Amino acid sequence: MKIGVGVMVLLAASAASMTVQAQDAVNPVVSSANEIVVRQSAYIITAAEQMPADKYGYRPTPDQWTYGKIVAHVTQANFGVCGMLTGDSAGKGPAVAETDPKEKLVAVLKQSFDTCKTAMDGLKDASLGGTITYFGGAKKPRARALVELTDDLEDHYSQMASYLRLNSMVPPSAKK
């Protein structure tokens, strides 16, 4: 009996879906957080690429961060927080500054998200109660770093989206 290509694709897709569902059932917290990290990383990288290089010094008011500072901060936070998730307290990544050229900031930003992907791929719900050394040397559960990661990405993407709109650009999350 021959099985058609369409049936084989459907079976493979069903198997992949069951694997994802099984992963979600075993690690619902990490799986949910990973969905947020994947979504926000795509938005943030696209927003970083979208803003023209000459606008990386843009800030809506003198008291607000520049666009370049937001990108540099997200990059450094990703390396630090994702390092906490894996237990790599030295996970600082390459140094970046808000005044670095856009090309460097975007390249290192992408590298920071690769580091987070690796951290998320190895993370299990069962490990979230383990103790990590958090910012300032405080001992916290690993779950604190996971919450920090998702919250920080959503917070700073909202800044980036606002800055894009203030420069007459449509942010990635608003595009169809």
Describe this entry's structure for a reader.
Helix 1 crosses helix 2 (28-50) and helix 3 (67-86) packs antiparallel against helix 5. This protein has a single domain, classed as Four Helix Bundle (Hemerythrin (Met), subunit A), CATH 1.20.120. The model is unreliable at 16-20 (pLDDT under 50). It has 176 residues and is mainly alpha-helical. The longest helix has 25 residues, at 142-166. It has a two-stranded antiparallel ribbon. The chain has five helices and two strands; from the N terminus they run ααααββα. Keywords: Signal. InterPro entries: DinB-like (IPR024775), DinB/YfiT-like (IPR034660). This is DinB superfamily protein.
Q: Could you please say which CATH topology applies here?
A: Four Helix Bundle (Hemerythrin (Met), subunit A)
* CATH level 1 class label: Mainly Alpha
Structural domains: how many: 1
State the order of secondary-structure elements, H for helix, E for strand: HHHHEEH
Strand content: under 5%
Q: Give the CA-based shape.
A: globular
Helix proportion range: 55-70%
Report Rg.
19 Å
Specify the oligomeric state. Answer: single chain
What's the arrangement of strands in the largest beta sheet?
A: 1-2
Question: What would you say the CATH architecture is?
Answer: Up-down Bundle
Helix-strand category: mainly alpha
Largest sheet: 2 strands, antiparallel
Q: What is the overall pLDDT average? A: 89
Provide a count of the helices.
Answer: 5
- The CATH homology group name: dinb family like domain
The total count of strands amounts to: 2
Runs in which pLDDT lies below 50 for 5 or more consecutive residues are 16-20
Task: Report how far apart the termini are.
Answer: 44 Å
